[in-house]
């Protein structure tokens, strides 16, 4: 990079380094001077929050790994030793344990924002696909970490979830044997899970790098869904405007995270996580972490076989059907950019899409509650109904391509900001006059 293209830093040390390795100029171009739509709201904070949570999870995870014993005989005791004997071990464990929940919370909000404002549409399809890939790897990483304490809940959870792969025709049993490292969940299983759980966060970090790279190629979406037309009017530099806004949102988020981690650290944890794993005693009710519950509800609700009516011929048993539905719920997120071809991105200008999206979100929350309930009584039926509602959303998205008339769009991002400010001023004036 020639000196004419480098940013003139006043600090002589930074300038000296940048002249030989223009990393500071690169950071200035991509993060400080990067043109960003001027109408971001606080939902855009959650991308940065998720990135901070990823780094925090990696740091606390490495620290915990230094004292963890990945063996069936010593795993549970090593976790208890971390809590009691390792300096600051209780804090590291609670930060890591609750950090997973808050990481998923940030990602769920981030994904909802992308769906609400159409951030998965052209030219950001690859950006969305990378984001869903991150979510999928996060789920795998969280499941593996869920198993590591080798408690009654985590050991049986690992047994049940890995057994699902046996539903795959022809190769299912071989996959389960490979995952277990034998013919039951035991020491080789825990070693495999620990190795993968330690490695996958770095894979996530690599995909996050590509995700951010793709974002900086296409630029950010915004609440109007209109692209930047005039950089001077429609955008502002990322720094200081959004570094300050992101910092404020991050401080609020971390304050809640710290409050839970220090004052109610076991609030999101099942009591059976504090009982050593006993392969001879089955828990009365296996409950995954809250961020898995909607998918778990879909899996359990498919308790019927698919076959030819009025015959005994079974085309697909309930186990395989449940697995396909569970993974299909995530697969639908991958194909969302290709089934939603409506020219308007933001749900602010698509009233029917907005209703469909909120119904889907409500169904997802209800499925989370169903997943925490025993698979008896009315709950399997409720699970079937809202699983159907979840998938119906994607059919509705496809149907709305040609059957939804959007509201008029503003002429530009700048015009939408002026219109919003004018409405606020009018409302304030009316309030003062009254």
Written account of the structure:
Helix 14 packs antiparallel against helix 15. Helix content is 65%, strand content 3%. The longest helix is centred in the middle third of the chain and has 32 residues. A hairpin with a 6-residue loop joins strand 3 and strand 4. A two-stranded antiparallel ribbon has the order 1-2. The protein has a two-stranded antiparallel ribbon with strand order 3-4. With 434 residues, the chain is mainly α.
Question: How do you describe this structure in short?
Answer:
This protein is mainly alpha-helical and 434 residues long. It has helices at 12-20, 23-32, 45-65, 75-84, 89-116, 125-147, 152-163, 172-180, 187-218, 231-234, 238-263, 293-301, 318-339, 351-372, 379-403, 413-433, and strands at 35-37, 235-237, 306-307, 314-316. The protein is 65% helix and 3% strand.
Key words describing this protein structure:
65% helix; two-stranded antiparallel sheet; two-stranded antiparallel ribbon; mainly alpha
The overall pLDDT, averaged over residues, is 93
Q: What are the low-pLDDT stretches, counting only 5+ consecutive residues below 50?
A: none
For the CA atoms, what is the radius of gyration? 25 Å
Walk across the major sheet and give the strand order. 1-2
Biggest β-sheet: count, sense, barrel? Answer: 2 strands, antiparallel
Number of helices: 16
Head-to-tail CA distance between termini:
61 Å
């Amino acid at each position: 990079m020639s000196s004419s293209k480098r940013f003139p830093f006043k600090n002589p040390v930074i300038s000296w380094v940048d002249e030989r390795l223009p990393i500071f100029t690169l950071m200035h171009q991509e993060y400080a001077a990067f043109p960003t739509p001027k109408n971001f709201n606080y939902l855009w904070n959650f991308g940065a929050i998720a990135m901070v949570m990823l780094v925090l999870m990696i740091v606390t995870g490495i620290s915990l790994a230094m004292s963890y014993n990945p063996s069936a005989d010593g795993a549970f005791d090593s976790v208890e030793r971390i809590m009691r004997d390792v300096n600051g071990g209780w804090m590291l464990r609670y930060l890591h344990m609750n950090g997973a929940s808050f990481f998923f919370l940030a990602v769920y909000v981030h994904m909802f924002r992308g769906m609400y404002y159409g951030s998965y549409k052209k030219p950001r399809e690859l950006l969305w696909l990378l984001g869903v890939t991150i979510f999928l790897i996060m789920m795998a990483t969280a499941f593996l970490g869920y198993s590591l304490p080798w408690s009654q809940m985590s050991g049986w959870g690992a047994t049940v979830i890995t057994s699902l792969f046996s539903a795959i025709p022809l190769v299912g049993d071989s996959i389960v044997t490979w995952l277990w490292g034998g013919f039951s969940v035991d020491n080789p299983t825990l070693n495999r899970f620990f190795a993968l759980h330690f490695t996958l966060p770095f894979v996530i970090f690599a995909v996050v790098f590509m995700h951010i790279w793709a974002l900086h190629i296409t630029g950010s979406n915004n609440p109007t869904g209109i692209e930047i037309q005039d950089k001077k009017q429609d955008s502002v530099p990322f720094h200081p405007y959004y570094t300050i806004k992101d910092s404020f949102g991050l401080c609020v988020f971390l304050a809640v995270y710290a409050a839970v981690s220090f004052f109610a650290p076991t609030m999101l944890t099942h009591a059976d996580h504090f009982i050593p794993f006993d392969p001879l005693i089955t828990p009365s009710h296996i409950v995954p972490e809250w961020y898995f519950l909607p998918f778990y509800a879909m899996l359990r609700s498919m308790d019927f076989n698919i076959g030819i009516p009025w015959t005994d011929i079974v085309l697909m048993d309930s186990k395989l059907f449940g697995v396909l539905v569970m993974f299909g719920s995530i697969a639908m997120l991958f194909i969302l950019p290709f089934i939603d071809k409506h020219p308007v991105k933001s749900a602010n200008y698509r009233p029917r899409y907005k209703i469909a999206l909120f119904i889907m979100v409500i169904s997802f929350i209800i499925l989370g509650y169903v997943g925490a309930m025993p698979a008896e009584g009315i709950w399997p039926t409720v699970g079937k109904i809202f699983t159907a509602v979840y998938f119906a959303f994607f059919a509705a998205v496809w149907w709305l391509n040609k059957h939804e008339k959007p509201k008029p769009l503003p002429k530009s991002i700048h015009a939408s900001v002026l219109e919003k400010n004018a409405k606020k001023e009018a409302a304030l004036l009316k309030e003062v006059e009254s």
